[in-house]
Amino acid sequence: MAAKSVLEQKFEQGLFASRWLMAPMYLGLVVSLGMLMIVFLRELAYYAPQVLTMSSDKAILAVLTLIDMTLAANLLLIVLFSGYENFVSKLDINDGGDRPSWMGTVDFSGLKMKLIASIIAISGIHLLKRFMEIGQQAADATYGEHELKWFVIIHCTFVISGVLMAAMDWMQARSVKKY
C-alpha cells in the first residue's frame, strides 16, 4: 500500500480539525439554555402567586407549561453533551461522580432516538395544553379548529417519524448482527 502524500495528510488533518467549528454552536446552545431558564423562572414567578386562587385546569396548564420548558431544556442538554462528545471531542472533566450515566454512552443512533422522543413528548404536551384550552375565548380566538387539526397532524407526523426511525435502527442493528 502506497504511503499517503503530504498534501493528502494535511488535507485530512484539516478536515478532522474542522470539527472544532461546531464548538461555538454548542456554546450558543449553552446561552439558549440560559435563555430558557430565564423564561422558565419568569413563568414560575407569574404562576406562583396565583396558586391559592387558580382553578385546577389553570394549575394543570401552568404545570404543563413548566414541564414543556423542562423537556425542551433536557433536549438541549442531550444535544449539547451528546453532540459535542460524538462530533467534537470527549468531555474529560473531573466531575466528582456527578456525571450523568448516559453521558459518553449515547451514540448517534441513541441521540436520534432521544431527540425524537423528546420532540414527541414536547409536541404531546403542547397538544394536551391546546385541548385543555378548548372553550376558552382567548385560546379559541388564537387556536381555532383549523389550527388544532394541524397540531394533531404535526404531532402524528412526529410519532410516525419516531416509529419509522426506531424501525430503521432496529433493522440496521439486526443486519449488522447477521454479518
Automatic annotation (TrEMBL):
<keyword id="KW-0812">Transmembrane</keyword>
<feature type="transmembrane region" description="Helical">
    <location>
        <begin position="148"/>
        <end position="168"/>
    </location>
</feature>
<feature type="transmembrane region" description="Helical">
    <location>
        <begin position="111"/>
        <end position="128"/>
    </location>
</feature>
<keyword id="KW-1003">Cell membrane</keyword>
<dbReference type="InterPro" id="IPR005134">
    <property type="entry name" value="UPF0114"/>
</dbReference>
<comment type="similarity">
    <text>Belongs to the UPF0114 family.</text>
</comment>
<dbReference type="InterPro" id="IPR020761">
    <property type="entry name" value="UPF0114_bac"/>
</dbReference>
<keyword id="KW-0472">Membrane</keyword>
<keyword id="KW-1133">Transmembrane helix</keyword>
<dbReference type="Pfam" id="PF03350">
    <property type="entry name" value="UPF0114"/>
</dbReference>
<feature type="transmembrane region" description="Helical">
    <location>
        <begin position="20"/>
        <end position="40"/>
    </location>
</feature>
<dbReference type="GO" id="GO:0005886">
    <property type="term" value="C:plasma membrane"/>
</dbReference>
<feature type="transmembrane region" description="Helical">
    <location>
        <begin position="60"/>
        <end position="81"/>
    </location>
</feature>
<protein>
    <recommendedName>
        <fullName>UPF0114 protein COL8621_00539</fullName>
    </recommendedName>
</protein>
